[in-house]
Amino acid sequence: MRTATIVAALLLGAAAPLGAGLLEHDSYGAQNYATGAAGQVANARGISWAGAGHLANPALAALASPYEARASLQAGWRRETRNREVFDSYSNSVGLNTEAINSETHVYLKDLSLGYARRVGPLPALGIGLGMAAEYDFSYAYHRETRDGFFRVIRTDDVAGTGRIYGVTGSLACRPLRSIAAGVGVTRLTGRQTVDRAVLLEDPLADDTTTSATSEYAGTRANLGLWGRVTDRLSWGLSLRTAAKLKADIDLTLADTSYTLSRSVRYPGEYAAAVTYRPAHTFPATVTIEYARIPWDKLTDDLATGRHLQAVDRYSLSVAHTVADAVPLRFGVSFANSYLTTGIGLASAGLGADLTLWRTTAQVAASVGKRSYNMGQAYGTSDVTNVSETVADLVLTFSLR
Questions:
Q1: CA angle at 127 for the pair 122 and 132, rounded to the nearest 5°
Q2: In angstroms, how far is the first alpha carbon of the chain from the final one?
Q3: What is the distance between the alpha carbons of residues 397 and 328, in angstroms, rounded to a whole number?
């Protein structure tokens, strides 16, 4: 019985609607999908871009020509508003009651990568790469105050989630022909997730509730990739990421009692394809379409066997257009559904630009996305709370090649 209580308290951080803000952050993490500023414009990896790097597609390590170094910094802003429609005694709507407004900003290292490629004699061009990227984000803060008829605070609910899972990747690629490259990589995933919850009651006779769970994750996955060029204007890319089985050591504090648990979570893999086209034009342009399927429905969690997630389909379209002063301008759009339900989707749009000085290129991109949903829709309950989320990101990338 005590074990069941411990597990229920642990899973409160993964399933309770109270802390479901931004949906994924309080569950298995919001996936940090894009690579670099150029990818952030359309929330894409860029698996068919020659300059996207081996973190997007291990085959691109063979296109470093001869070396490539990149570092990206990301600033993210999240805003969440929750409200509930209020009715009078005759069931007439009298407006919306705002229950919570949460806003937060985070700045962190998005990715860092190095690549080197060279052809030795008659051998095919070989490339190697080493890099690190933030892959899953657990950062989230929620605060709600409940007041009585005299507008006195009688209860506060707080949720604070912190932590990220980072992946360190090594890649090896071969380019046997000028028009094709193949690569393989291995990623070591490690990270920490901490979720603190507190329900504080004004009534001195009532018991407050506090829980804290810290999970240390570690696991490994494999990455496979292909890149090809059909013509000088048309190229393509394919990418496969295997599922990663992460082991977690969990320190759980429930009230004043501490427990230690073990957890095994099998994060989903990924299948992605992209096509890049450079149409003939006075000013050079590059159009990229990318699609990825992430089978979150295959996720397994030995402490949450009853959870049923949905596969995620990601679509993105980006255009890079070089204007008269040789400055590439980028814009893009993307759409992806939540892994909690396919009925909730995040649409986003972004803008960016490149500035080259000698061998260094600075890329900047800004994107914004918005979605609205009903809490009952997200969790299959009767909860009628309406949630509106705004997600904005600013990414700065420095590349040297």
A1: 175
A2: 60
A3: 14
> Mind listing the pLDDT tens digit for each residue in 207-259?
888 888 888 999 999 999 999 999 989 999 999 999 999 998 888 888 778 88
Give the residue from 318, 322, 380, 382 showing the smallest Cα distance to 355. 322
**Which is nearest to 140 in space by CA: 88, 78, 192?**
78
Which residue bears the tokens 């090649």?
401
pLDDT at 5: 46
Q: Give me the CATH topology for the region 23-143+167-187+227-240+268-400.
A: Porin (2.40.160)
Per-residue tokens: 130: 């080493």
Identify the residue whose tokens are 């790097």.
53
φ, ψ for residue 379, nearest 5 deg: -120, 5
φ and ψ at 124, to 5 degrees?
Answer: -65, 155
Can you give the residue ranges of every domain in the chain? 23-143+167-187+227-240+268-400
pLDDT of residue 8: 45
Q: Is 2 exposed, middle or buried (0-12, 13-18, 19+ CB in 10 A)?
A: exposed
For 199-262, give the DSSP string: EEES-TTSPPEEEEEEEEEEEEEEEEEEEEEEETTEEEEEEEE--EEEEEEEEEEETTEEEEEE
Q: How many residues does the chain have?
A: 401
Q: Please tell me the pTM assigned to this model.
A: 0.88
Alpha helix stretches (DSSP H) within 279-366: none
Residue 291, CA distances (Å) to 111, 179, 182, 336 in order = 21, 22, 19, 10
